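Backbone geometry:

***
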Amino acid sequence: MTKEQDGLQFEYSPEHRAYLQMLRRKDRFVTAMRYLLLVAFIFFWELAARLGWIDPFIGSSPSRLFATILRLYEAGELWLHIGVTLAETVVGFLLGTLLGTFIAILLWWSATLSRIFDPYLVVLNALPKIALGPILIVWFGAGMKSIIVMGLLISLVVTIMTVLAGFNAITDEKQLLMRTLGASKLQILTMAVLPASVPTIMSALKISVGMSWVGVIVGEYLVSKAGLGYLIVYGGQVFNLDLVMASIMILCVLAALMYYAVAYLERRIGQRMV
């Protein structure tokens, strides 16, 4: 096995090849165990419902969930609700990430500005965002705008604090060296701070994905006529727990897909930086 780098080929030693094979075996084992646990959970859940160990009306079952999803699909409502929630989440996530990173750059640029706003960021981060729901509804109306803003706000402060912490973790010696060589503040940002903060930014993206889903679902709880959050609330009101749990299952799948999309982006960026 050889590896090509900068036009040169390096051959791995037998020990190194054995080590790489061991790592691949461990990765395959972890992946297999993940799927095995999922299949086992679904199997025993269905078995418990059929044997009466749990009340299917309260605990539902995988077969009932799939039947509920199939009914939504046949009624032409499945993709409508998924599309509404997914669109709100993606827009809120992108806006929160871009705006949060921009504000983090401004606060890094000015240490005085950062000191002024630091206590406000701490308070906003601790504030339960659901408390802002009624205010957002009055300001933006009972519709998609208020839901997107809710998703944006929940991810915004976390993104600002995480990215800013990554910027501040860059050593002063490196920045001082660039200043000594005549680099401007913008050059330090683009050539040193941002590249070194890519892992932190990607971690902030992973956190923001989950926070955006939370914000959107909370917003749909408060005001929505479509979406997975609306289905959860409606199902709870009419005691249709199959609908509630089917919506939650769809949410889990969508959230996992968005998370893995961010993880894939992180790997691609990491490969380019090597």
Q: What stands out?
A: Strands lie at 2-5, 8-11. The radius of gyration is 24 Å.
